[in-house]
Amino acid sequence: MKIKAGDSLSYFMPGTSGNGVVLVHGLTGAPSEMRLVARQLWRRGYSVYAPLLAGHGKDAATLRRTNWRDWLDSVGEAIADFTPEVDGLYAAGICVGGQLALMASDLQPDAVRAVGLYSPCFNYDGWAIPKFKVFISRQAAWVSKVPFIGLLEFDETPAMGIKDERARRLVAGAAAEGILERFPASSLVEMHRLGREMRRRLPFIRTPTLIVHSREDDLASTDHAQYIHTHLGGPSELHFIDDSYHMIHVDRQYRDVADQTANFFETCDAA
Fold first, then answer.
1. Confidence of residue 32 (pLDDT cuts 50, 70, 90)
2. In contact, 212 and 239? CB cutoff 8 Å
3. Contact 230, 205 (CB under 8 A)
4. Which of the ends of the chain has fewer CB neighbours closer than 10 A, N or C?
5. CATH code assigned to 11-270
6. How far apart are alpha carbons 91 and 22 in whole angstroms?
7. What percent of the chain has a predicted confidence (pLDDT) above 70?
8. How far is CA 60 from the centre of its chain?
9. Any idea where the domains of the chain sit in the sequence?
10. H or E segment and range at residue 37
């Protein structure tokens, strides 16, 4: 494998099928959070590359110095590096990571055959989000103009987007693997800007896309998944699951998420 990660958190798992998947972690997350799905896809024969997004893996101050375009560039570079190493390339990601994967696929349509989008979210509006955070997330465009707002930081919700208590404890102890414990307000602004740009581009994106969302998602309503499914310019499948919160790639049904992803990619490959 020729990929040389410029950090200690990205990783590569060589598969046997000749096909590969770029797995993109979420906002304030790290490649380590993708390992459960990565292992399932690896067992299905896929090579897996999980890159670290720009500004992530260190602290909130470092993350504040980057924007959504920097994150998108990270995914684009990962796709460009991985493409020569496999016969067929796919991409998948959680929340913001999935949206970045979809947008990156549109920028390199000859490289990415299909995308898996887990728990898409333009703004946080799930049942566990306090009302003032919902307000800030929805009004990020003008809130961003308030002086020093970008210096604010928020704690994760108590459940951390995870229904399974054991999985929650494992993720809570993952700070050493680059997962941030606090959420900078500036990232909400960049998340809003990413979502605005993605909604503008959706009708023109032709990449076949699998969308998986939990009906119990505590951070993002199912409206986001439905919106993408309805407005995407290419073929898409929308699957709902029922026993997980937002972090479906580490929660109780991560095996189902990985299997649905592999099945969709194989269907696209056959087509």
1. very high
2. yes
3. no
4. C
5. 3.40.50.1820
6. 5
7. 86
8. 18
9. 11-270
10. helix 35-43
Pair of tokens at residue 183: 């959420």
Tell me if 219 sits within 8 A of 121, measured CB to CB: yes
- Three-state SS at 244: coil
- 149 class by beta-carbon count within 10 Å (0-12 exposed, 13-18 middle, 19+ buried): middle
Distance CA 142, CA 267 (A): 43
- In whole numbers, what is the pLDDT of the chain averaged over residues? 90
Q: Position of tokens 């414990």?
A: 181
Q: Give the lowest-confidence range in 32-46, 91-105, 170-184.
A: 170-184
Residue range 34-59: mean pLDDT, rounded: 97
Residue 47's identity, in one-letter code, is S
Q: What is the per-residue DSSP string for 177-213?
A: GT--SEEEHHHHHHHHHHHHHHHHHGGG----EEEEE
- Smallest CA-to-CA distance from 26 within 269, 251, 253 is with 251
Phi, psi for residue 125 in degrees, rounded to 5: -145, 20
Beta-carbon contacts of residue 43 (< 8 Å; ≥ 6 apart): none
pLDDT mean over 251-262: 98
pLDDT of residue 22: 98
